[in-house]
Amino acid sequence: MELPGLGQHCSESTCKQLDFLPLKCDACGELFCKDHIRSDDHKCGSAYKKNVQVPVCPLCNAPIPIQKGEIPDVVVGAHMDKDCKYNPAQQKQRIFTNKCSKPGCKRKEMMKVVCEQCGGNFCIKHRHPLDHNCTGSSHPISKAGYAALLRASQTPFDSTGAIGVPSNGSQQHNRCR
Question: Which of 28, 86, 127, 133 fits as disulfide partner to 46, beta carbons 3.0 to 4.6 Å?
Fold first, then answer.
């Protein structure tokens, strides 16, 4: 042996390989070869000290703060015993609770869709005043709604706009004919 003083032996009990560039585990501080440097490879007992993941409670889905050096399973277990805000009745709550006000319609929506004219709550299919035979004011509050009602009451080519779309689908300019 020419250079017996160089290098270190791997700290893994099954390896003990002489390594000239040993690596130091930043969790336990022992020296390892390239094959055993990962915490999983040498079954590091101090790996939890370097784990920077935040555990989440499996019941209430709240992140659980842990101090450096604490074991996450123990902290989550203590949270579940004392501070957990899990409510089993909360999972039974229904999402689709907004029933359509149109007679005969049984659809429900996640969000309220309120008519600007009559104030009724309707499904997506009956949200427009023409679709639910609205009994509110004669003119909608918004200008866009008023324009939509005007367009619905007119024939397709009554307007004097610059672009008309004939029944064959091609666009043509009215003033260039």
Answer: 28
Per-residue CA distances from 162 to 5, 147, 158, 166 (Å):
92, 17, 12, 13
Model pTM score? 0.31
Q: For residue 56, what are the β-bridge partners?
A: 63
Burial 43-63 (b: 16+ CB within 10 A, else e): ebeeebeeeeeebebeeeeee
25-57 pLDDT per residue, tens: 888 889 999 998 888 888 888 877 776 778 899
pLDDT digits (tens, 9 = 90+) for 61-77: 889 988 877 888 899 99
> In whole angstroms, what is the distance from residue 64 CA to residue 83 CA?
10
Hunting for tokens 């008519």 — which residue is that?
Answer: 115
Please answer whether residues 135 and 158 qualify as being in contact, where contact means their C-beta atoms are separated by less than 8 angstroms.
no
Phi, psi (degrees; rounded to nearest 5) at 78: -65, -40
Query: β-pairing, 163-164 with 108-109?
Result: unpaired
Predicted confidence (pLDDT) per residue in 137-162, tens digit: 655 557 777 777 778 877 555 445 44
